[in-house]
Amino acid sequence: MPITGLYFLPTNPSDDSPLPGLLSRVTAGHTCAGLPRWTLEHRLFRETPNPALGSLAVDEKSKPGPRYMQMLALSHYPEHSHVAVTTTQTASQTRAGTPASSIISAEGSGEPATLISILSGPQSDDFLHFVGSKMGPMWMQRPTLSVSNGMGYWLGDYRVRLGEVRQGGGSGAQLKGVAVEVEWVGAEAGDWEAGERFIRAFWENLGLKNGRGVVHVPGLEKGNGTVRQWFEVLRLKG
Fold first, then answer.
1. Is the pLDDT higher at 54 or at 165?
2. Residues facing 154 on adjacent strands
3. Which residues lie below 8 Å from residue 43, measured CB to CB, with a gap of 6+?
C-alpha cells in the first residue's frame, strides 16, 4: 500500500503563486513522467454553537469545541465524494496552531472523524442540497476551496501532485496556498515508518521552510488515509 504525505504552503493575498518555483524544485534532477491533471473541491461546514452545551461546562478548558462537516471531491478518486464529521473536542484539545514545517501526527489531533463515501454525481448533489436546505440551522457553511488544474509527476518511487488552492470561484478566486501530495510507492510500501522517513527526506531535500505537513491522522488504520489527510489540512484552512 502506498504511503502518502500531504503538505500545504500558505500564501498571503499579495504574494505571487509559489507553484512555478516549487515545480522547478520538485522536478530538478529527476526523470519525470507526467500524471493526468487533477481537481479538488472542498466544502466546509462548522457546527452552529449551542449555548446550552457551553453553559454546562465547568470552565473554558472543558467547553465543547466546534464540530466540522466536510465534503471532498478529488478527481483521482472519481467514483465517490467523501464526507467527514469530526467528533466533539474540548477547547483545550482543539489545535490552536502548529509551527510551520511540522508534521501533524495522530497524537493530539483528537478522535477520528466519522467518514462516509457517496457516489459522485446526482447522489452527491442531492446530499449537498439536503445539507443546505434542511440542515442550515445546524451547520454554517464556510468558504469553499478548490484546485482547478493541478499537476502531477512520477519521480522514481514517488508520485507527486501539486496544485494551487483557491477560495471562491471565477476570476475573483483568492489564492490561499499550494498543496503538495507526496506518495511513496517504493519496495517497502505499506511500512508506515519507512514510508514516513522517505517522504520526510523528499520534502526536506526541497529546502522549503514554510510548509506544514500531515502524515499520521486519527483513524488512519480505518482506511482512506489520503482522504483523511486532505480533510485534516483543509479543515485548518477554514
1. 165
2. 33, 159
3. 70, 71, 72, 128, 141, 144
Which sign, positive or negative, has the C-alpha torsion 131, 136, 139, 140?
A: positive
Q: How does the average pLDDT of the chain come out, rounded?
A: 79
pTM: 0.80
| Cα distances (Å, whole numbers) of residue 156 to 151, 179, 203 | 16, 20, 15
Task: Please answer whether residues 221 and 126 qualify as being in contact, where contact means their C-beta atoms are separated by less than 8 angstroms.
Answer: no
Q: Is 155 helix (H, G, I), strand (E, B) or coil?
A: strand
> Cell numbers of 141, please?
457553511
User: Could you tell me where the DSSP H helices lie in 59-187?
Assistant: 122-134
| Interatomic CA distance for residues 164 and 85, integer angstroms | 25
The pLDDT of residue 56 is 55
Query: Could you give the dihedral angle defined by the CA atoms of residues 141, 145, 146 and 152, in that order, rounded to the nearest 10 degrees?
Result: -140
End-to-end CA distance of the chain: 30
Q: Select from 63, 14, 228, 45 the least CA-distant residue to 131.
A: 45
Q: Over the stretch 213-234, which tens digit does the pLDDT of each residue have? A: 887 776 666 667 888 889 888 8
- Pick the closest to residue 3 from 190, 205, 159, 197 (CA basis): 190
Sequence-separated (6 or more) residues with CB below 8 Å from residue 90: 61, 62, 63, 64, 65
Contact present, 50 and 67 (Cβ < 8 Å): no
Q: Which residues on neighbouring strands pair with residue 158, listed in sequence order?
A: 155, 184
